[in-house]
Amino acid sequence: MKHAAICYQPILLAMTYISLLQADYAPYFYDNEPNNNNGNMAMLSIPEDTPVGSHLYTLNGTDPEGNAVTYDLTFEPGAKHYFAVEPQTGTVTLVEELDREKEAEVEVLVGISDSVNKDTPPIFSGTPYFVSVYENTEPGSEVFSVMASDGDLGNPNPIHYTIAHGNDGSFDINSTSGAITLLQTTNLLQKDVYKLLIQASEMNPDVDVLVSMTAMVTIQVVDINNHRPTFYGENGPQSQFEMTMYEHPAAGEILRGLKITVNDSDQGANAQFNLRLVGPEGIFRVIPQTVLNEAQVTIIVENSAAIDYETFQVFNFKLLAVEADTPEKFSSTADIIIQLMDTNDNIPKFTSEFYIARIPENSLGGSPVICVTANDADSEIWGEVKYSIYGKGADLFLIHPTSGIIYTQPWAVLDAEVQSKYSFYIKADDGEGKHSLAEVFVTVLDINDHYPEFDENILEKVMIIGSPVKVEARDEDAEEPNNVVDYSIMQADPANVFDIDHATGEIVLKSYIKSLEIIHNITKNKGCQWSLVVQAKDRGSPSFSTTAVVRIDITDETSGKGHMADFLLQSKDNPMKALGAVAGIVCFFVILTILISTIMFWRNKKSNRVGPVRRIIKKRPRHKSKTRKSGWFPKKKKSAKRSTGFMVSGANHRFQNLSAKGSHPPLPLTLPCPPMLPATLNKPDWVLPTVSGSLSPKSHFTHQSKRKASNINTALVSELKQRLEKKMNEDASRLYL
Question: Which residue ranges are recorded for the region named Disordered (predicted)?
Fold first, then answer.
């Protein structure tokens, strides 16, 4: 009989073995050539979609004596019978549907026999054989024993055991006992499952050909959890990994400087483990997080802002590998060390947004004023700060570029009386464009370096009894108390006549002196003129003082003459005071005049009032007669256009001022009709102008009637003038209303 393993795509076919059943010469199969469908059926591949009932193969063998042979197929106990063979022809047919997902390999024993050999082959007991060998089994250990007995019960022959197939030198079998032993350590085994074909042969010295039988022993190398996850570098196992990188890498960037591999040599669930980082959280992330057997470890950036050189120069954390589903929970760790390199990512910052400094005005040029400080958190050259100064008030100052000390210029002269406040800007730069600004306020402190000064060394004053006189000294210092002046009388004769206000400098008579008689009783000086020595002293430290002689004339001779006389007398020693008063009065009247003129101008402009215009008054004609010129009108030549030089205006139009711009003609004004002349005076026909016009006669009287007409014209003109002026005034009044 022959054993064969049959595979279909991807079912693997095993070798086919022959067991001889004939005492002399056993039948055998022909060799199975490639792509041949008859022979010993070895290495047969069958597609899983092959229909049931299909012809798969034809077994082909022969017997050396020429006896007829028969074929049979033997399956392992409990296995499904997928094939059937016709014994005489050897035709193999598929009888069960194939499913590679359920069973990828089918093992079957192919047998050939003739009818001459009557010896029964050995029989294995306890088949099928499945053996588990733990990976910690020591070499030389017995892993399993097979047992076979002679099929002929009357006179059994001894059995000889051999490994016919499937051994790569890892196992051995005892030829007499059938004990299978391990020859090498399990970690050197090349496969997890070994299928050893064990052949049991009868030992009969009377025959040349031995009768044998085979059985399959499946050995499963069972893994035990005896390996920890191990980290490997480029040169083998490694427990520490280091790299250098710049701060603030991009989020998601891979740390390519770390080349880490992790491996667990166990099998199956024992080789599954988890990876995680132990240390600063949320900064880096490891992938993958679950590994089976072996994987390349990748660490990526998760929080770029946290990778800051100014906060951490070195990151230390551990890479931890822990088995996932084992009772032992074996684990391993590797130290990860990341050295950070600085970048210019910080701006120099002043310790304050503004600085306030004070310096005495008598400080020499080049004196220090204040020291400012700016800090840059970056390292090396990026952390070096350069200072500069600029601004409108920076002319008198300079700053040291590295120390930040602000000095006055060597040539600078400070004077609080000229300028006591300065402000300017300072700049801190790191050399690559990153900078910040601050403002500096400098106050020049006033020093008491000025004496109080009177306008003159000798002051002339006139005092009216009951009124004070005032002396004043100015101190040019800029600040109090250096410019605050106190007054005192240093010398007076007699000493009990005058008092002085220490703050204002007002000099008054003693309260009991009410008249000149009292003064005459005090002193023999009848001129009523005294000289006082007045001191003006500032409150600075040290204090400075100045004295002046004050000559005072005391009088009461303006009493009862009015306030103006008193004022002029008091202004005797100060003529500018009187001049200022006069100038003020004049300015007041000028302003008042301008104001009144402006009001009148705008009022006239608003009403658009005009003066009298020329007007022609005609007497109602009765007959044509000659007229003569009036003797009191200027003589003028006749003109055909004389009458057109006058304007007759309607009463409903406004006047227009004749003094307005000459380029604009006056608006016409309609005046009322002239009054009717008496019937006795309507003889001549003439034109009568107003006082601003001229008379143009249309007819001429004879020389004899000129005197008589002259008297009439004079009376008529006077009456007409009165009526005309009255009417014009009434019209003007209505316009203003």
Answer: 618-644
Query: Which residues does 291 contact at the CB level (< 8 Å), separation at least 6?
Result: 229, 262, 264, 272, 273, 274, 275, 321
- The whole-number pLDDT of residue 524 equals 65
Q: Which of 374, 362, 414 shows the shortest CA–CA distance to 393?
A: 414
Q: What would the pLDDT profile of 20-71 be if each residue is shown by its tens digit? A: 333 456 777 777 666 666 777 777 788 888 898 888 888 888 877 777 888 8
* Distance in angstroms (rounded) separating the CA atoms of residues 81 and 17: 19
Asked if residues 668 and 647 have their Cβ atoms less than 8 Å apart, the reply is yes
**Model pTM score:** 0.46
Residue 56 contacts residue 94 (beta carbons within 8 Å):
yes
Q: Which residues contact 297 (CB under 8 A, 6 or more apart)?
A: 231, 258, 260, 261, 262, 275, 286, 319
What pLDDT is attached to residue 702?
43
Residue 344 maps to a domain: no
Residues 237 and 308 in one domain: yes
Closest CA to 253 of 306, 311, 298: 298
CATH number at residue 84: 2.60.40.60
Domain final residue pick, 420, 445, 470: 445
Task: Give the H or E element holding residue 428.
Answer: strand 421-429
Query: Integer distance in angstroms from the first to the last C-alpha of the chain?
Result: 153
Which residue is associated with the tokens 């005032």?
Answer: 470
Contact 700, 597 (CB under 8 A): no
- β-partners of residue 156 are none
CA angle 438, 442, 445 (to 5 degrees): 165
Q: How many CA atoms lie within 13 A of 83 on its CB side?
A: 32
Please name which of 567, 532, 529, 574 lies closest in space to residue 550, comparing C-alpha atoms. 532
Instruction: Let me know the angle formed at the C-alpha of 612 by 607 and 613, rounded to the nearest 5 degrees.
Output: 110
Note whether residue 421 is domain-resident. yes
| Residues 411 and 501 occupy one common structural domain | no
- pLDDT single digits (tens) 435-469: 999 999 999 998 888 889 998 887 888 888 888 99
Q: Do both 275 and 200 map to the same domain?
A: no
Alpha helices in 69-186 (DSSP H): none
Answer yes or no: are the C-beta atoms of 669 and 610 closer than 8 Å.
Answer: yes
DSSP at 507: E
**Model confidence pLDDT, tens digit, residues 627-684:** 444 343 344 444 333 333 333 333 333 333 333 333 344 444 444 444 444 444 344 4
- How many folded domains does the chain comprise? 5
Q: Mark whether 242 and 206 lie in a shared domain.
A: no
